[in-house]
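Figure S7 source data.
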Amino acid sequence: PSAFARFATGSPLLCCGCAGHQSALDAAGSEADATSFLFWILVGAGALIWLAVVGLLVYAIGDRRRMWSEDAAGKLILWGGPVFSSTVLFGLLTYTFWLMPGLRPSIDSALRIEITGTQFWWRVVYHKSPGPPAISANEVRLPVGERVEFVLRSDDVIHSFWIPSLGGKMDMIPGRTNTLPLLANRAGTYGGACTEFCGTSHALMAFSAVAMMPDDFERWLATQSSPAATAPAPGQDLFMRHGCGSCHRIDGTEARGLVGPDLSHLGGRETVGAGILPNTEETIARFITEPEVLKPGTRMPSFAMLPPEEIRAIARYLKGLR
Ligand code: CUA
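Tokens for the predicted dinuclear copper ion complex:
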């Protein structure tokens, strides 16, 4: 953690919400470092100005006997009003502009991660030549120490992509492509969220961002661009027979649907349902049984009419896809 975060978390009364896996003040990336530093500069400058104004106010209230000459009062208003305010604001504005190239560096990244927001989940595609693109969903993985270019789009309404611990947020706008460079400088799992109201389950549109050591990331990415190695499972037959493959894709099978999240390596993800449940056989089975309860407004229909043992078999098969 940064010195600021250590200070902030060491003083619970001062700032109890600064640490954690989803905090812009507990920076784990260079863009987040710059914004959290700017935040503390603004807090410091704001505190000094507030103290000066309150000090003058107390002085003016407490010292009624000393009448200020009109000349002195006029000078105070002139220098304390327009001159002081413009100097401070100009200084802070200059500093903010000076930071901006660091927040939006032009990059020629070897790794591009294309993320498409859709009600209420994330399509994630990794592009790194010479390998084929790797398709995934609802989880973002990136190597530590390498600036990655996020390419952000939307399929339906405006969403917004934010991993507070790694950097600033960026809107995902239908018909537009936005890019956001981010560099993680500490390995770990960080929380990400949709930060633009996009419908009933906006608050349930989250994801994990996992920053990995570069070698681990390369190994992981290689597994993602090929089918999961699994033994034939009864759940696979059921998945295909009940038509799940018309909405979901599983690499290496006849399931090629693109309406819902790609499930090719679902078993290796941290969460189910775009960040809302831990990833276990039970939660997968629950999502198949009552998607509308867990995520109101989802396009996934309920499969509660299937016998429970069939749902369990499908969940076991999906959890085994790593
Ligand atoms: Cu997507 Cu809010």
